[in-house]
């Protein structure tokens, strides 16, 4: 399996990483098989978190593969914001994982400026992590967050993180374009490893796994982390990694145009709908909608299973309030639309822009009825 440099750390990681959250869904005997089979196939990146099942994921990993500790890069996360809490969390994690060190400790789910300030403050979690590095219990410190990347961008400017973990897939590419446009270039410039999570958009792309993994592997990242909970899934994910070939520009554009999950509702941020005679920045409105609910609430419920999946996933990142604040600061909001009809014929993806502007304004402005 292809290996890539893990930022400036000197580590090398397999392109496919094993995420530990979904080990909670299966018995230890199956977790033991999957973890060892992954290592046997050449994988070497194992990731979990203290909060996954209150340590159950870590305990399964430790029991299954601690005897092969020199064969893999081990990553765990702490959600603690204070120094002592971080150290106590790490001590428990090392005990669960049956090891004396982790290669990377991620500050878990740092989703607000308050969180970032807390871990950076005197007595914050970063002080605990730095102490653990001096003690040899942690080799490198990183940070993770779901969804919109503003806090991760601020974090990389504020602290010398060795790794950053972020959401990247061909669906959310259009909800959080700043990840690929701004966060990845900044991380590369600073030498921070990029850990790609959610290649299947939390399961939304389950019908197109090969295309989703090809897109993910094609990003300039160190490792693509997949949650694995069955032998069939492991075999498929390994096959995608082992047969991966770079995606051509033409193939990438075809995916953006024709991916069924994007359809005729998700804005691709091409800007061809502009200019608007009322001065509405149409793509910017839809960026706010992407933050709000990942453009999943599209005003239709034709397929019950598909609708239920989108309803479960649309608020996965909890960005509704910041999306509404962002929209409130928009110079010209979508309710200024006069339905002149100039924009819709310009859209190369067949989006009914007038209808979509109404839906986005309903969501973001908190209208009483749509």
Topology:
Layout: E1 3-5, E2 12-14, E3 16-19, H1 28-40, E4 45-47, H2 56-65, E5 73-78, H3 83-97, E6 102-107, H4 113-120, H5 125-135, E7 138-144, H6 150-158, E8 163-167, H7 178-190, E9 193-197, H8 209-217, E10 223-227, H9 231-242, H10 249-258, H11 282-293, H12 304-313, H13 320-328, H14 353-364
Helix pairs in contact: 1-2, 2-3, 3-5, 6-7, 11-13, 11-14
Structural description of this entry:
Helices cover 41% and strands 13% of the residues. It has 370 residues and is an alpha/beta fold. The protein has two domains: 3-254, NADP-dependent oxidoreductase domain (TIM Barrel); 282-364, no CATH class. Strands 3-4-5-6-7-8-9-10 form an eight-stranded parallel β-barrel, surrounded by six helices. A two-stranded antiparallel ribbon has the order 1-2. The protein is globular, with a radius of gyration of 21 Å. The termini are far apart. The relative contact order is 0.11.
């Amino acid at each position: 399996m292809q290996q890539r440099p893990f930022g400036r750390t000197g580590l090398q990681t397999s392109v496919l990483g094993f995420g530990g959250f979904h080990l909670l869904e299966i018995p230890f005997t199956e977790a033991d098989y999957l973890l060892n089979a992954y290592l046997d196939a050449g994988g070497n990146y194992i990731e979990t978190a203290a909060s996954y099942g209150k340590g159950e994921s870590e305990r399964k990993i430790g029991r299954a593969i601690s005897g092969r500790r020199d064969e893999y890069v081990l990553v765990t996360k702490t959600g603690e914001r204070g120094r002592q809490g971080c150290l106590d969390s790490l001590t428990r994690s090392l005990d669960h994982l049956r090891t004396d060190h982790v290669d990377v400790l991620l500050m878990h789910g740092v989703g607000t400026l308050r969180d970032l300030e807390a871990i950076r403050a005197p007595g914050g979690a970063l002080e605990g992590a730095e102490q653990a590095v001096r003690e040899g219990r942690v080799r490198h410190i990183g940070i993770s967050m779901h969804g919109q990347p503003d806090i991760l961008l601020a974090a990389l400017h504020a602290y010398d993180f060795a790794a950053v973990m972020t959401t990247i897939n061909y669906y959310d590419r259009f909800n959080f374009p700043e990840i690929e446009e701004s966060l990845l270039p900044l991380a590369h410039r600073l030498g921070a490893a990029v850990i790609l999570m959610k290649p299947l958009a939390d399961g939304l792309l389950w019908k197109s796994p090969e295309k989703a993994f090809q897109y993910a592997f094609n990003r300039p990242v160190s490792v693509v982390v997949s949650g694995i909970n069955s032998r069939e899934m492991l075999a498929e994910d390994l096959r995608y990694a082992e047969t991966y070939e770079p995606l051509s520009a033409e193939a990438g554009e075809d995916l953006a145009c024709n991916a069924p999950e994007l359809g005729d509702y998700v804005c691709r941020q091409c800007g061809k709908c502009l200019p608007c005679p009322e001065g509405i920045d149409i793509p910017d409105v839809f960026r706010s909608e992407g933050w709000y609910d990942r453009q999943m609430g599209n005003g239709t419920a034709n397929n019950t299973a598909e609708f239920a999946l989108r309803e479960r996933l649309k608020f996965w990142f909890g960005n509704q309030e910041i999306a509404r604040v962002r929209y409130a600061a928009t110079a010209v909001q979508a309710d200024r639309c006069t339905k002149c009809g100039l924009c819709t014929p310009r859209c190369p993806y067949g989006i009914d822009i007038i209808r979509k502007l109404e839906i986005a304004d309903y969501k973001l402005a908190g209208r009483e009825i749509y």
